[in-house]
Amino acid sequence: MVEKTIVTRYAEYGSMTELETCDRELCEAAIAALSGSYAPYSNFNVGAAVRLADGNIVIGSNQENAASPSGLCAERTAMFAANATHPGVPMRSIAIVGSQNGSICDGITSPCGACRQVMAEYQHIAGADLSVLLISSSKILKFSRVDDILPFIFDNLDK
Ligand code: THU
After folding, report:
1. Residue 148 Cβ contacting ligand 1 at under 6 Å
2. pLDDT tens, 64-79?
3. What are the DSSP calls for 54-111, one per residue?
4. Is the predicted pLDDT of residue 31 greater than 80, yes or no?
5. Cα 158 to Cα 60, 80, 124, 125, distances in angstroms
6. Residue 130: pLDDT above 80?
7. What is the pTM of this model?
8. Do the Cβ atoms of 54 and 83 come closer than 8 Å?
């Protein structure tokens, strides 16, 4: 038996002004998307924004439902909307932000497993890295590719 270790690499930024312009715009779009969140059950609002290879940005927010499994996370709302409205245009990055009582959360809002798996799918069909930006009130974390937040990624589309 050999014990092994996985290292996760990511960049931490102290504020949005440190980001490249395209990433800053994407984070601003994710924050703006919070206004569309429908979260009367959890009172936890999430905004997401997807950057496409052609430069377009598509936003999404969490949409809850009285029958809770019928709701959807912000990330998947954004990614599904992006691929539905811009079919075949690769996704390059996604920014995510959580908010409670009108304020961006102090902690990072990290995507759930199902959303990570959907990111993996769109990264796969893009044929290039899809970066993930996680926004909190005090910092932004940037993962260069989905593999960095989803180790041992399930990806058997070619097999
Ligand atoms: N939620 C998201 O939209 N994205 C995440 O990454 C985590 C959780 C939503 C689902 C639900 O509407 C609320 O946050 C509380 O779990």
Report:
1. no
2. 999 999 999 999 999 9
3. TS-EEEEE-B--SSGGG-B-HHHHHHHHHHHHSTTPPEEEEEEEEEETTEE-SS--PP
4. yes
5. 29, 21, 10, 11
6. yes
7. 0.96
8. no
